[in-house]
C-alpha cells in the first residue's frame, strides 16, 4: 500500500505518524510546497513579538527526524501540480530545482490547509510593508521588518484570533496599533454582549479600534503609505497586517471530483474519507460537523486538524477511530484577558430553534484573599432538556480551566443540574468552595425551574416598548444612588419583605443587585410572597451597565 499525503503541518504529519504506527508495510510519502513541516502555526505571533525567543522553537521536527522516527519520506519545497485519479498518478515539481516528476498512490490524502484571504483592494498588489501571518517564513519576514525598519505605527486589518494576537504583540513591542474590523465588534463568533468586553481591554491598553470599517483604497507603490476606509478615513502606518480570515484550499481536490460540503470545505465521512474511495481530506481543508446540532461546520483550528489526521491515518490502516465532531472550542489571550468559547452561542442556539435560558455568571476564579479576579461566564441552556448548549468566558485568569470543563461536559451532553453535582477540585489557591462551573449549574437550574432570569438586552427591549413593569434595585442606597437602571426603585433586600405589600403582585417584576446573587434571594422572597411573575436580572447591574454603555454607542 502506497500512501501519498499532500500537505503537512498539524494534519498531514499526523496522518503519516498514525498510519506508520499501525503498519510497517505501507510506503508513506508526504509532499509540501512550504519549507517547514509540523510547525506550531499558533505560536507565530508570539515569535514575532519576541515572547518566543527563536522561530526554531516552533519547528522542532524536520523531514530527517520523520524519516528516522517513522520511516516517512517527506519532501518540502515540492508542489503537486496535477493529479490523474483514473491512473492514481500525480505530477510533482521540485521548487528548488524546477524538476517535474511523476509519482503514484493507492491512498491519497489532501492536507492542503487553507488559503489566507486577501481583501479585494489588496489583490494583485505587493507592498514591502504589508504582511499576512501564514507560515514560519511569513513570521520571520514580519520579525525582520520590525527589527530592521523599527516601525512606530501599525494597522491590523481583522479582529479575530490572529488579528488580536498580533495586535497584542505589536503593542508590547511599543508600536501604536490600530485595529480595523468589518463587523461591529471584535471576535465575531462570540455573542456581542461578550465581545464588547474585549473593546474595554483595547481601550485600557490604548489599542485603537475602528468597527464596521474596511479598507477601500490604497495609496503607495512599493511601500503602502496610507489607506482610505469605507467611512472615508485616511489612515497611515509604517506596518500593515492583514488578518482577514482563511478559506479551505480545495482547488487541487476539486480537480479530481472531490465534493465540497455546504461550508465550502471538503465533505468527508467519519473516517475522513471523501466521496472518492481511497481519497481522504484532513485539517483546514476539511469540513467538520457540530457535536450538538450534527450539522456541517467549518472551524479551522490546529487541535481539530491534528485529531482529523490521526483518525484518517488510523482508519485507512484498519483502525477503529472515527471523527465525532467539534464544539468549536477556542481560546485567546489578549493582554490581561483570556477569551474562550465552546458550543453554541446564544445567537446560534436561537437560529437552531432552541428555546433557551441565558445566564451571566460573574464570579472570581478563587477567593479574594487569594487574589481572585472576576470572570464573566455566559452560559446557554436548552429549556426543554436542560442540556448545556454553549459557554463563553472572559476574564483575567482561571478561564482556561473552566472552559475545558465546560467543553468536556457539553460533549457528554450534561444538564445544568449535572454541573452542580460535579465533584470538582477545591483549595483556595485554585478555586472557590463553590466553583464557578458548579455555580453556573446551580444558577441555571434555578433559572430553568423556579427562578427565571432576564438578560439586560431583553430588559432594555421592555423599557424601549414602555412595558408596564416594576424594576427593583435590591442593593444598599449608596450603591443605588451611584448608578442604577432607569426607572428602578430602591428596596434593599433587608427591607423587601416588609415593603413588598405596597407593590403590585400581578405586575411583571424584575429584581437586580450588583452581580446576581442578592437578586436571586430577592426573587425568592417575592415569589414566596405571592408575586405572579418575578425575574432576576442576569449578571445584575454590573452586566447591565456594561451592555447599556455599548447600546448607546
Automatic annotation (TrEMBL):
PANTHER family: NAD(P)H SULFUR OXIDOREDUCTASE (COA-DEPENDENT), PYRIDINE NUCLEOTIDE-DISULFIDE OXIDOREDUCTASE DOMAIN-CONTAINING. It comes from the Bacteria. Keywords: FAD, Flavoprotein, Oxidation, Oxidoreductase, Redox-active center. Pfam families: Pyr_redox_2 (PF07992), Pyr_redox_dim (PF02852), Rhodanese (PF00581). GO terms for molecular function: oxidoreductase activity. This is Rhodanese domain-containing protein. The lineage of its organism: Bacteria, Bacillati, Bacillota, Bacilli, Lactobacillales. It comes from Lactococcus lactis subsp. cremoris (strain MG1363). Transmembrane segments: none annotated. Its cofactor is FAD. Belongs to the class-III pyridine nucleotide-disulfide oxidoreductase family. Residues 465-553 form the Rhodanese domain. Coiled coil: none annotated. The keyword Oxidoreductase applies.
Amino acid at each position: 500500500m502506497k500512501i501519498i499525503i499532500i500537505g503537512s503541518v498539524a494534519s498531514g504529519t499526523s496522518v503519516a505518524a498514525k498510519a506508520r504506527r499501525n503498519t510497517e508495510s505501507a510506503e508513506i510519502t508526504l509532499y509540501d510546497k512550504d519549507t517547514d513541516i509540523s510547525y506550531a502555526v499558533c505560536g507565530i505571533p508570539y515569535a514575532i513579538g519576541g515572547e518566543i525567543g527563536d522561530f526554531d522553537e516552533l519547528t522542532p521536527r524536520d523531514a530527517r527526524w520523520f524519516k528516522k522516527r517513522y520511516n516517512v519520506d517527506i519532501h518540502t519545497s515540492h508542489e503537486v501540480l496535477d493529479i490523474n485519479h483514473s491512473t492514481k498518478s500525480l505530477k510533482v515539481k521540485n521548487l528548488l530545482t524546477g524538476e517535474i516528476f511523476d509519482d503514484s498512490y493507492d491512498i491519497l490524502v489532501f492536507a492542503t490547509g487553507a488559503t489566507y484571504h486577501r481583501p479585494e483592494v489588496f489583490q494583485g498588489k505587493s507592498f514591502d510593508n504589508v504582511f499576512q501571518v501564514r507560515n514560519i517564513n511569513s513570521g520571520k519576514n514580519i520579525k525582520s521588518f520590525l527589527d530592521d525598519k523599527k516601525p512606530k505605527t501599525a494597522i491590523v486589518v481583522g479582529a479575530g484570533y490572529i488579528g488580536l494576537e498580533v495586535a497584542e504583540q505589536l503593542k508590547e513591542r511599543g508600536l501604536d496599533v490600530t485595529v480595523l474590523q468589518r463587523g461591529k465588534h471584535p471576535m465575531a463568533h462570540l455573542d456581542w454582549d461578550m465581545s464588547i468586553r474585549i473593546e474595554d481591554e483595547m481601550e485600557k491598553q490604548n489599542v485603537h479600534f475602528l468597527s464596521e470599517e474596511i479598507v477601500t483604497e490604497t495609496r503607495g507603490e512599493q511601500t503602502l503609505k496610507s489607506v482610505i476606509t469605507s467611512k472615508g478615513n485616511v489612515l497611515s502606518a509604517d506596518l500593515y497586517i492583514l488578518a482577514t480570515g482563511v478559506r479551505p484550499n480545495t482547488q487541487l481536490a476539486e480537480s479530481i471530483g472531490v465534493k465540497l460540503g455546504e461550508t465550502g470545505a471538503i465533505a468527508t465521512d467519519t473516517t475522513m474519507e471523501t466521496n472518492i474511495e481511497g481519497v481522504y481530506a484532513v485539517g483546514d481543508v476539511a469540513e467538520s460537523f457540530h457535536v450538538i446540532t450534527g450539522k456541517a461546520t467549518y472551524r479551522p483550528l490546529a487541535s481539530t486538524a491534528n485529531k482529523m489526521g490521526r483518525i484518517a491515518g488510523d482508519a485507512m490502516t484498519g483502525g477503529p477511530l472515527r471523527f465525532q465532531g467539534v464544539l468549536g472550542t477556542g481560546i485567546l489571550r489578549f493582554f490581561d484577558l483570556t477569551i474562550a468559547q465552546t458550543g453554541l452561542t446564544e445567537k446560534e442556539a436561537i437560529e437552531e430553534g432552541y428555546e433557551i435560558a441565558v445566564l451571566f455568571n460573574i464570579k472570581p476564579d478563587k477567593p479574594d484573599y487569594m487574589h481572585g479576579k472576576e470572570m464573566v461566564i455566559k452560559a446557554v441552556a436548552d429549556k426543554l432538556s436542560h442540556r448545556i448548549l454553549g459557554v463563553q468566558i472572559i476574564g483575567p485568569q482561571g478561564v482556561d480551566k473552566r472552559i475545558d470543563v465546560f467543553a468536556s461536559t457539553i460533549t457528554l451532553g450534561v444538564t445544568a443540574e449535572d454541573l452542580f453535582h460535579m465533584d470538582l477540585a477545591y483549595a483556595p489557591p485554585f478555586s472557590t468552595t463553590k466553583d464557578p462551573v458548579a455555580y453556573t449549574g446551580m444558577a441555571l437550574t434555578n433559572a430553568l425551574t423556579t427562578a427565571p432570569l432576564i438578560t439586560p438586552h431583553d430588559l432594555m427591549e421592555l423599557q424601549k416598548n414602555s412595558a408596564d413593569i416594576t424594576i427593583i434595585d435590591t442593593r444598599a442606597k449608596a450603591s443605588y444612588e451611584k448608578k442604577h437602571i432607569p426607572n428602578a426603585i430602591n428596596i434593599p433586600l433587608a427591607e423587601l419583605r416588609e415593603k413588598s405589600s405596597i407593590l403590585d403582585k400581578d405586575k411583571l417584576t424584575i429584581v437586580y443587585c450588583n452581580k446576581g446573587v442578592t437578586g436571586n434571594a430577592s426573587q425568592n422572597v417575592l415569589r414566596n410572597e405571592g408575586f405572579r411573575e418575578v425575574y432576576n436580572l442576569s449578571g445584575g447591574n454590573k452586566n447591565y451597565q456594561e451592555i447599556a454603555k455599548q447600546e448607546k454607542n
